[in-house]
Here is the input.
Amino acid sequence: AGGGMTMIWWANPDDFGATYQMLRNDAGGDGRYEFRINSGAYCQFDGGSVSMQSPSSSITAGDWNMCVVTSNDTHDDWHLYLNGVEVDTDTNSFSIPNDNDLKFIAHQISSGGSAGAFLDGYIDEVSYWVRELSSSEVSELWNNGNGARADSLANIEGMRVYYDFEGERTTGGCGFTGECITNMAPSTAQSAVAGA
Here is the structure.
C-alpha cells in the first residue's frame, strides 16, 4: 500500500456559517491535521507546515462539491483537488501520524476543542486511503460532476475508511448515491477510528 495518503469528502452545504472540520487527526503536537470547509466557502487542509486551500468562494452552497487531498509516500508532495481539478500543492514535509486518531466529525471546533455548530447541508462518500490516488483516479471519482463511488475504482488497495452512508438517513437532496447524512447533529455525527 506504500505510505501515501488520500482523504476525500463530498459536501453540499446550505451555508457557510462556520468553518466545519470534515476529517481531522487529533494526534498531539505536530501530528495534528484538519481537512475542512472554511467559512470563506473553500476547502482547506492544514497539517504541520503543510497548508493548502482552494480559492475563496470556490465551494458553492446548494451544489455537490468533492474535495480531495493526497500525499506521496514520503509526505513531501501534497495535492489538493476541488471537483476533480488540482487547485493547490505544497512540498513541505509532514509525517502523517498513526491513523488511529482519525475522525470524521463535520462540525465546528471551538477554541476549547469542544463541538460547535454542525454542518448545515449534506455529506456523502467520505473515504481515507493509505496510498496516493492519482489525478486520473480523482477525476474518475468526480465523473464530470456526476460522482462515482469510491469503491468503484479498479484499485481499491489502501482504502482504510469508507462512509458511503447507504442505509443512513435519506433525503431528496442527496446526490448520486441517493443516500447521505444531512444537517449534522451530535446524534448523527460519525466519529470513528480509521480501519475500524
The helical segments are 135-142. The first helix runs from residue 135 to 142. The first strand starts at residue 5 and ends at 13. Residues 168-173, 182-196 have pLDDT under 50 and may be disordered.
